[in-house]
Amino acid sequence: MRHLQLIFIFLLLLTLPLSVNSEETGVLYLWEISSGNVWESFGDETSQQKYKGMTSNGKPHGKGSLSYPDGKSVTGEWRDGKVWNTEHYDKDGKVLGKSVNGEWRLSWGFLFLRKVSGKWGWHEDGDAGKDYKYEGMIENGKPNGSGTYTSPSGNQYVGEFKDGIKHGQGTFIYASGSKYQGEWKDGKKHGQGTFISPNGNQYVGQWKNGKKHAQGTFTYASGSKYQGEFKDDKKHGKGTFTWKNGAKRVGEFRKGKLWNITEYDKNENILRRWVNGVKLVDKKKEKLLFLRK
Length: 293
Fold this sequence. Notes:
The protein is mainly beta and 293 residues long. Helix content is 10%, strand content 60%. The radius of gyration is 32 Å and the shape is elongated.
């Protein structure tokens, strides 16, 4: 008899979590009544918010999605009928914001960068014709996440922000016609990126603190090309400069100047050399070059 009692208690314990938790998958509708909002298993999705997903005790709890009559939607995790870790979208799928651990973190909106009482800052009101305008994700009153920034002069940046500063992947189009596409850090070009000038010059390579740095390739509109190392926006280190006709200079550059360089014609015949920044003069070769001209 004692054994039967133990078995009965054991079976009762096994079923207890199911009755307490009562988690299941279902569809719920949000009803707005005078005493507050309540979730019910019946409703009309054309006029009410509709939830589909995990539920517990008649409320959204766990993974699920919510749809609004106007087309907006919410997906993610819910707890006790409230959003917990969710992303919110408009009818076209654009992210409006998100919640993290029950707190609203990001929202989509407009901000203006302007000077007030002598200090620059982001504000919700402004003049798009005079102030710097931002449209995109906002957190703590600043651009955070993806967005578009436009200046009164016509410059435009489309990409990622962090605490109000360009940071991450983005494209900056200058009013002059120049364009940079690539990585940013703390508001400056930093990492891999491509810069194209209106005259057709193009640089593809590494950047550091807003300047060309490390490995890169600079192609001139004329067809000439430099491929090698840069530092502080200048040719610096090992590299090769090649003219359109095939002639080239190969070796070491320093601060944009020829340092230890050998120059070749298109048939790879040596024409001249530089050692420690000084051009070596071969009188016979110089005379021959003069006669060829």
